Fold each of these.
Amino acid sequence: MEVVMRNFFQFFGRNKVANKLAKKYGLKFGAQKFVAGETINRAIEAIQELNREGLVATLDHLGEFVSSELEAKHSTDMCIQTLEQIHSSGVNSNLSLKMTSLGLDISKNLCMKNMRRILDVAKKYGNFVRIDMEDYGHCQVAIDIFKELKKEYDNVGLVLQAYLYRTEEDIKDLNEIKANLRLVKGAYKESAEVAFPVKKDVDANFKQIIEQHLRNGNYTAIATHDEKVIEETKAFVKKRGIPEDQFEFQMLYGICEELQKNLVKEGYKVRVYVPFGQDWFGYFMRRLVERPANVWFVLKNLRK
């Protein structure tokens, strides 16, 4: 049943008709729990509330797989506007982005041009930009671009996914440039040729790559709601004497909020991934895929 549900929501999330209807009717039926709003002003208000709770954030203007240079320019402009709003409002937040929204599928050069525009503004404001990892087909080019940008900028990081077989070798490779990485389990549908098909193997690899990156002495963002992983990480850093300024925990907006606050009370840095924008449907579907509890939350809203 869980596999059927996962396949349904992943297919639905890529459906253009469903996406169009979602944009038309707005953040209803529970999506507002996981998406801060459709506007930057609403997202800033959400981060102000998080900051008051001792949490920091990373803002993501939702969008991916653009098909024209004009759309890519719009997404780039929105990223820059987001950085400017973060600066002017004084909230404690970084920026996250997907390179397909900046024209990666149109041309690598276009994407690089747009990334440099964004990173120049982030550097001016003393801010940091995280490149989100997307599906397997974009993995190698994302790493290649990250390596090129890292030669010019020290305020850029990348995401790697534990469910891919290749990730352990990617971490070894990226250790050479002391990469700042967010490590996640992974939420895209991938074949068994490139990704672990069994959850326990993903979990084991997640633990392995977290410890590997921390042992290398590099900044590590552990993005998970899995309390077992969190407890194991806390024990590992304590045993190894790893300083608290070398890592942070990251969680999604609207999920495990009490856990987020409890970790802050324990003295850990917790960053909340805060998505906003009109193109929220694909993101919302991936959140339903990840946690069955999210599906029941939405179903309860449908009955109201």
Note: The CA atoms of residues 69 and 107 lie 9 Å apart.
Amino acid sequence: MMLIKTHFIDVCLRKMQIGGQSSLAGPVINYNDLYFRIIISVTAAHIIVTIGEDYSFFQLLVKWDYYRSLLFSAVIAFILVNLVYWVIRHLDRKYDWKLYPLPRLGLQFVLALFLPAIAAFILAFLYFRAFGYDIRHTWYLRYDYPVIVALIFMLNIYYLAFYFFRKWQIAEEMATNASPAVVSVPKEKNVLIVSKGAQNIPLPVSSVAYIFHDGGYNFIRTFEQGEFFIAETLDVVQQQLSEKQFFRVNRQMLVNFTACQHFELLEYGKLELIVKPPFKEPVIISQKRAKAFKDWMER
């Protein structure tokens, strides 16, 4: 069943993918929360089963109907919780919150909230049908179903908070680990290790057009217009590259000489560099760096 759900999610993502691009925002978050999913499923099942009951908790413990209802409700809840989990895992790989906030928000609503809500109704319908009840003639839609939708919404909020917390932890770890590397890394590497989704890829330096900082992360764009995440800071990467081939045009970008098309003079002695492939924003070189850049271009 998980394979069917995963295939369905992949099909939806391929059809709704914006411009055919994938999220390249760095390491995929590994939630490792199986026990949490089990506990939240059982807890949610207990809440649903006990809604509207006149019995106390201890009175329910001696009733067989309580355990039967709890078991079936927990199974349904676990299926729904894992559906949300698998959707979010796939969205994390393709639509990072920082890079694609609006597409991610829309896909999150459709695939991680609306879809599980529909699945909850279908599973409950089959459950009642198996015991000879018509779901329309029960209190489920009036009392239980709104609670289930609210729990699915809260589960989405949990994973959103977990996602940004883990991203913050990863950024802190990168900053800590990068500090001593500025002195010790070798210069003029021929290959850089980059990431795309969950894959670590050796990328030839000769294919790098420029390296830039965006949204708290660092990325490489190649001459073929591919984009990759790189864990090291720009300071560390600059230490690894040839000073003749790469220039730090500003705090956010390192540029390959081959990627420089031309530059234009701006006011106050600044320069605007035109690169290929084109960058999404103007590449501005400050007055302080302008002379060094011109000398580098005339090498």
Note: The two ends are 62 Å apart (CA to CA).
Amino acid sequence: MTTLTHRGKRADTSTVDRNDLEDEDTQGGTHSEEENDYDSKALRLTLMEEILLLGLKDKEGYTSFWNDSISSGLRGGIIIELAIRGRIYLEPTTMRKKSLLNRKVLVRSEAPTGDVLLDEALKHIKATQPPEGVASWIQLLTGETWNPMRMHFQMRNVRERLAKSLVEKGVLTTEKQNFLLFDMTTHPLSNTSHKEQLVVRIQESLLERWAGEPQRLARRVLALLVLAHASDVLDGSLSTLSDEQYEMATTRSKAVLESEPNTQAGKSSSPADEVIWAVLAASNI
């Protein structure tokens, strides 16, 4: 990837349909200044698209064959994106104070999101009784179940569908590569600036824009760190830093990712934040 030299650079403002990108913040919370800064001035990608972009090899156009974590990470991104858009939440705590992973995922709004993957997952969640928890939904959407009656929950071809969406947005292109025994459709970067800006966003959140405590991070930045960790692509996002910066960023990321999810969720009144911490708890099982 191109060496990152302009850390303050932002993409041109794109027109965003606020109805399609309705955040949970509009139903009771507020954006931080940092979140507004990034989300209003850059091409708006879903969390799943951002994670796939981080995992793709720039020129080859495919994810590492050795990364067996990105599939569940992308499904975690679907769950978090639905929560941020105000479609789902975790059942309220009771006097027994259930842990995040023991609380079921409930539907707040059935309104379509305009995103095929999100709407497909929302349909499954809505139709399932009794409700399931976050960890169960990540496994079911990934297809990690031995119960043949639950295989219909598996979301297929997620990477390819996300890649096609990124092609439509001008971030990736489509090529065919020959691997001796078979041909494979690949999606190399057509414009490296989008991935560079995404990497800068992660790096700055842990360096210049470091908030000091996990709950003070902008919501989508926190979600991105959690999902990059769950998908095993976070370290690659820090690889262009100097040794000193890398050590600092790694230390701070560990402060976030090794914190106790239930404790951190208890410090926030946001339903979306609870889901983010639940996804982290699920990735640490």
Note: The CA atoms of residues 92 and 103 lie 8 Å apart.
Amino acid sequence: MRDFLADSAYDDEREIAQYLLAGHGLFSVMGSSEDVLGSGQTILGGDSIHSDGEWVWRGDLRFYVRTHHVALPTEFLERVRGFNHVMPAEDLSRLMEIAKDIRARL
């Protein structure tokens, strides 16, 4: 995670974090995860997995973006901004396909 720390926050960091928070749940994990970068904070639902139908991320990614200004892939940011930071509508069959693929890799 330390390898992806940015020098400064994105101008639209709050909106990006909201997009991440609005992700469609693939796997929900009760509990919390520790901040691996050492702030001492815990993140509720941090181990859960979310998607926008194309990208997949952990539930704690929004925390790392807001708290530590973690840099995200350019292609992901283009998608988020292309949707004006609004999560695309749920495509249940696509999300089930993604979840099945993730489960097969475990």
Note: The chain has a mean pLDDT of 96.
